[in-house]
Amino acid sequence: QKEVEQDPGPLSVPEGAIVSLNCTYSNSAFQYFMWYRQYSRKGPELLMYTYSSGNKEDGRFTAQVDKSSKYISLFIRDSQPSDSATYLCAMSSQTGANNLFFGTGTRLTVIP
Amino acid sequence: KAGVTQTPRYLIKTRGQQVTLSCSPISGHRSVSWYQQTPGQGLQFLFEYFSETQRNKGNFPGRFSGRQFSNSRSEMNVSTLELGDSALYLCASSRGTSGGVNTQYFGPGTRLTVL
């Protein structure tokens, strides 16, 4: 079993929809949780990160972490065609660590 | 500020050969991490170099090795290539300092195809 599980999708939604992306994990030592966005033929770029449990909001994006359930989510409000990309969750157990554990990514398409 | 650059962008090799990939981090960044990305496994951490020393290592065989130079540029080498090594190899740079989250900036990757 992989340490981080993510529904690969693909997910297709109409413009303006609310998108929910999720990951589950098995390692209770994970404390830092990140969401990356990867466009085709590009490297991933960091969207948001949260530490431990709780919510974090940044514009149209909201990240949630529920450590008791080992479950993290990313919500995208008022989705736009430019949000079409692969979304990857990532996590680590150490402060400052660069050895991240990634989900396999969910491919999202927002239809105009 | 220039981003992370990786060369070459595409590479085709045959089984048994070896390959060297190069990564130039963002100026001022001392940490370089390497990841392998495949459709089935996603991104998997290979290793991290900080100030010319390997600081972390993932669960890959010894055929995968790397090094970092004094200017923080890094190279990754794969010897005795296997078909399963076909993947996108991503390099990420960060400041590498402790505390909180080190934002990693990824390059566009090198697409390696092993025939």
Describe this structure in words.
The complex is a heterodimer of chains A (112) and B (115). Chain A is built from no helices and 11 strands. Chain A is mainly beta. The N and C termini of chain A lie far apart (37 Å). Chain A has strands at residues 4-6, 11-14, 19-25, 32-38, 45-51, 54-58, 61-66, 71-76, 85-92, 101-102, 106-111. In chain A, the strands form 2 sheets. In chain A, strands 2, 4, 5, 9, 10 and 11 form a 6-stranded mixed β-sheet that branches. A 5-stranded antiparallel β-sheet of chain A has the order 1-3-8-7-6, with no helix packed on it. Helix content of chain A is 0%, strand content 54%. Chain A is globular and about 40 Å long. Chain B is mostly beta strands. In chain B, 0% of the residues lie in helices and 52% in strands. Chain B has no helices and 11 strands. In chain B, the strands form 2 sheets. In chain B, strands 2, 4, 5, 6, 9, 10 and 11 form a 7-stranded mixed β-sheet that branches. A 4-stranded antiparallel β-sheet of chain B has the order 1-3-8-7, with no helix packed on it. The chains are: A mainly beta (112), B mainly beta (115).
Summarize the structure.
With 112 residues, chain A is an all-beta fold. Chain A has no helices and eleven strands.
